[in-house]
Automatic annotation (TrEMBL):
The chain crosses the membrane at residues 21-40, 60-80, 92-113, 178-197, 230-253, 265-284, 296-315, 321-339, 360-380, 386-406. Pfam families: MFS_1 (PF07690). It comes from Brachybacterium endophyticum. This is MFS transporter. GO terms for cellular component: plasma membrane.
Length: 425
């Protein structure tokens, strides 16, 4: 009597602590770091870019928004690109491409050209996070997915911190063009690290459903995968939660620089940029998200995240640097708990044949939230100050909490219906 051998995809599911797990997690950490390293690298250079290209604050701000917009628009339509070679290969190729475009950004002669290049860079890096999260769902054992996702998001946190701090430091000694060039080279170095960490076993396994990724058939498969994913209430709810929490989070960090450097608090640029060190709190909560969720449960973790994100705005309301830092600190730590939990939920609940598309949908929603939060937050701050931004942030957090409650209820009903059908059968 012969025993069926496990499939290649089953063999490639690495348990926590295994050599394959460490290589995959190390690779997605570097990918997550590199994505955020280049995504926000103009945010700390906006005054220098504006001065060098003779542009105002609103116009130069699009060097950040264009990249985020490119990511949001590219996630789902491009989710089938390169799947024939596998998720790891696709993640590596587009990570390197984003670094090459970053070098080109440093050479752009006009603001319009720079914004256009940043948009293309956003399209390129849009495939990296979706590939990384889908890779976790495909290669990591189910019980270790949340922990692996937390490590990836910790890379996001460190990359986001370096993206905002390093360019400003570099600009003290050279022009903004040199600063952007160095950031692009760091991105390419991360690409080399990802290539070296490629798992030796099962590394050529293509993504599920990637037998053919050409023509209209690929788009139809993407649409079917999107429908299959969004029919799962937990996946849809997680997308709404991610978008709403990111809207609240990005809104705060978009306007806090204006507040810290304005007449209300009067800090200099270097001191104001130091607030981004609070991102390190996100590294801690991202890496421990799986442990926290395992201890208190998914729904309580999401509700706690939404509540503290909203509270952070109001803690930061008094006109004193200590309160601003404290408010942003608690907001940052608990935002990454919610984001880690929501993104891990998508990877866990999505059908195996639709994980790449499901991750793309989640991240597309996430960056739509980033764009909306940034734009509306800045508008509110310009007209009514921090109170208006706080009201908007509280609204976004409330949306996240409601989505968590409704998603949990819908998933419970779905399980009850499935159990009842199983009993009848």
């Amino acid at each position: 009597m012969s025993t069926a051998s496990p499939s290649a995809s089953e063999e490639a599911r690495y348990p926590h602590g295994s050599a394959g797990y460490r290589r995959v997690v190390g690779a997605v950490f570097l990918a997550g770091f590199a994505v955020f390293l280049v995504m926000y690298d103009t945010q700390g250079l906006l005054p220098q870019i504006g001065s060098g290209l003779d542009a105002g604050e609103a116009a130069t701000g699009w060097t950040v928004a264009a990249t985020t917009l490119g990511m949001a628009l590219g996630m789902v339509p491009l989710s089938t690109v390169g799947l024939r070679r596998g998720l790891f290969h696709r993640m590596l190729v587009f990570l390197v491409l984003s670094g090459v475009i970053g070098l080109a950004c440093a050479l752009m002669p006009t603001l319009v050209a720079l914004i256009g290049a940043r948009f293309l860079q956003g399209l390129a890096i849009s495939l990296v996070p979706a590939s990384a999260l889908a890779l976790i769902g495909e290669r990591i054992a189910p019980e270790a997915i949340t922990s692996a996702t937390g490590v990836y998001l910790a890379g996001n946190t460190v990359g986001g911190l370096c993206s905002r701090l390093l360019p400003g430091v570099l600009a003290e000694f050279a022009s903004w063009r040199w600063a952007m060039g160095v950031m692009a080279l760091l991105c390419l170095a991360c690409g080399l690290g990802v290539a070296l960490l490629r798992p030796r076993q099962g590394s050529a396994i293509p993504a599920a459903g990637a037998a053919s990724s050409d023509g209209s058939g690929a788009m139809l498969r993407t649409l079917r995968a999107a429908r299959a994913s969004l029919e799962i209430p937990g996946v849809l709810a997680a997308c709404v939660i991610g978008a709403a929490l990111m809207a609240a989070f990005n809104s705060a960090y978009t306007v806090v620089g204006f507040r810290l450097q304005g007449p209300e608090l009067g800090l200099g640029p270097a001191a104001a940029n130091a607030v981004f060190l609070l991102y390190l709190l996100g590294t801690v909560t991202s890496a421990r998200a799986g442990r926290i969720v395992g201890r208190i449960g998914l729904l309580p973790a999401l509700l706690l995240s939404a509540a503290v994100v909203a509270a952070g705005y109001w803690i930061a309301l008094p006109s004193h640097v200590v309160w601003v830092v404290l408010g942003l600190g608690v907001m940052t730590g608990l935002f990454f708990l919610g984001h880690s939990s929501a993104s891990a939920t998508v990877a866990r609940l999505a059908p195996s044949s639709a994980r790449s598309t499901a991750s793309a949908i989640y991240l597309s929603a996430y960056y739509v939230g980033a764009t909306v939060g940034s734009a509306l937050g800045a508008t509110g701050y310009e007209h009514r100050g921090w109170v208006a931004t706080a009201l908007l942030g509280t609204l976004y957090a409330a949306i996240a909490a409601i989505a968590a409650l409704l998603g949990s209820r819908a998933m419970r009903r779905r399980r009850e219906v499935g159990a009842a059908r199983g009993v009848r059968d």
